[in-house]
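fold-stage: in
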Amino acid sequence: FAGTGKADEFLLDENFSYAGYQITREEFFAHAKEPALSICGNKMYVNKVCLKKAPDTNRVLIMISPQQKKIILKPCSEESKDSVPWMTANGNIRQITCKPAFCALIADLTEWNLNNRYKMIGKMVRSRGERLFIFDLNAALIYPRKPVMDDDGNVVRNALTREPVYMESWRHQFGLPVEEHERT
């Protein structure tokens, strides 16, 4: 609040401490203008924000760090070895269909049930002239499947819910304690 010119409006408390406070996770807030990656079953897809931030390419390299549990999507040219299409020819979102082996590796790494949908808010990074999208698998919102019943009480299908369930490690906390947040 520097520069307001009205410092006297703030209470002076020399004994104030951040002890016991948590810095709230950004995943608890709306992210309509930030990149997002979703994984469900054998499909993964990004939101329109990613496509708008890399409009000159329709392919990406998908890189995974098992140690950090992060995914990088690196926009690239069609000539790039191992690249996959992430948008249609007219610039719309395209689901990336994954082989069962890839899905099994993700599920094993994250302990996810891929019948659910997992959505991660990402960060856009520019490094050495390259644009990257980085997504943290540890910070995924979980959209579980719930049975849809007919009038007789029979399960017709399982539908994804619109309300997320948070990671078990987030239970009863808003985020990291201030002290721990400052160390990361």
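fold-stage: in (second)
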Amino acid sequence: MTSLIPWFCFCLGSTTPTPTDGVEGKKCPLGYYCTKGTVKEEPCQPGTYSPSTGLAVCQPCPSGYTCPNTTMISGQPCSPGHYCPPNQWIPKGKTCPSGTYLPREYARFLNECLPCTPGFYCGKPGLSNVTGPCSAGYICEGGDKIPTSTSCPEGYYCESGSVNGTRCPKGTVRRTRGAASVSDCHPCDGGKYCIEDGLTRPTSYCLEGYYCPEQVKTGDPRPTGYECPKGYYCPNGTAQPKGCPPGTYQPNLQQKECLPCPAGSYCLANTSDPLPCPAHHYCKASTSEPTFCPSGTYTNSSETGLDSASKCHPCPSGHYCQLGVVTDTCAGGYLCITGNPLPNPDGSDETIGKPCPIGFYCPAGTIEPKRCPRGLVIATSHAISEANCSTCPAGKICSPGSSVPEDCTIGYYCPYNMTRQKCPLYTYNNATGAESVKDCKPCPAGFFCWYEGEWVKH
């Protein structure tokens, strides 16, 4: 039996099943197919093609190609970013999905689409190349669809296009995700050090004798250039040197504590070299401010370095001393004996000083009370000069050779500048200091006054 090759025959009929004269019929053309007994060729549909004449059926579009139109005689190469299984009719082929790309033609299968290159992202389907680098602060490990897929991990920084990120350098720390550059790695905390790369927290505290400032990338517990200076102390974990408190000092580098200021010196804050205690002062141990010698004592201007109040000298006779110096001479009317703090001592401690006693006068600065000229007396204390000397006052007895008047005795009266007189007969006087005969009273009833200078005992 003879097989029939696809030809088509015109409607007038044909004398042969395979006409070729173009009148009775002809061979089925390229891009078409001709079924048995057809009078007209049929166009090949999208997804198929007819690469030769005389085909009864169209052939499936081959893998790696696409046949998007009718009457195609050959497939078109599958476009980059696409893949084409058999019978493909989409113009470029099926798109490689987001997160993949394909730079070449003729791909046949989905698995030929390449995962997006690490460090890059492929942001839409059908890419022939990657979209671009991963965003700073993120990593793209491969096959990423967006530039911000995975945040940069703690302890790392991730510049644009990072695959794994870079460890933050020694001396820095990064506690949170998303660092975009090395500048996002923060200096180690103040008082601490970061000895390794990629730390999420400081290694430990800086050691005593050193300090680790904030905003400085410290990678060693004993950082060079940050030794604790003189006049300061640095215990473990010091961010800034601590100044020695007043009353202490530190003469050496790299110390964890300060020393008590020595006696005879004083130490201000942050002292490395104690200052000698100045003149007119004394300084006990741990002194931050010199203390004036006690009132009533002094030092010479050349005397420095005293360590106790006992080293200050008693104020000299005839003077008084305040704030560690001989202030001035004692006031007139007073005696400043020794160690006197005031110009007018009240006599509460007569070893120091007292008011000028009755019967004497005391010029300013005198060290001994002075007597009045012979025959003159002073009846009050605090006398300043010879001008205070006078003849014997009424009511007083003035003994020859003495400038100290005494009260007129009982039974007597003492007129001005005269010797004492007895009260007359039949009168009496029971009080001292009588000044005139008028102070002698008549003898009271029940008594008798038979003598001059009488006094009555009640």
